[in-house]
Amino acid sequence: MIKSRVLFFFSIFLIITVSLSSCGSRKPTSTTKAARAADAMANLKSKPLYRFINNWTGVRYKFGGLDKSGIDCSGFALLLQRDIYGKSLPRRSRDQADAIKKKSLANLKEGDLIFFSFGGREVDHVGIYLNNDFFVHASTSRGVIVDDLTLPVYQKAIVKTGTLN
Where in the sequence is the domain holding 71, given as residue range(s)? Predict the structure, then answer.
């Protein structure tokens, strides 16, 4: 009886020790998309850009929209370039793509433009590069949002990147 009791308590002790030691050795395998997006925002060089994005985040998408009641991607890019960098852009994303000096994706800097084609070969969407593979855009489904450029949906659709002339 004493042997079985000792064995029982030893088993419990062993189970608890193994459980506690395994909890302590766990490391997070990845950071969340939201945390990475927050890091991208925190690492912006331009504080006015940071404030601009914060003021617009969550504004719903509206085709042809150009104010806080709703905005589309090209309108958002137009306002951001005008208000933050003092540069003018055409109104439509495909015309905006014609106004940039082409640059490779690997060489993008804060404020550079990224053009996408989700519906074929023509440019139909635009975003603004931030840093660390994140960009800001007016998403048709989520409104103005900081998003991960490495997502396959974006990688497959990128057609042009560059800086405004």
Answer: 30-164
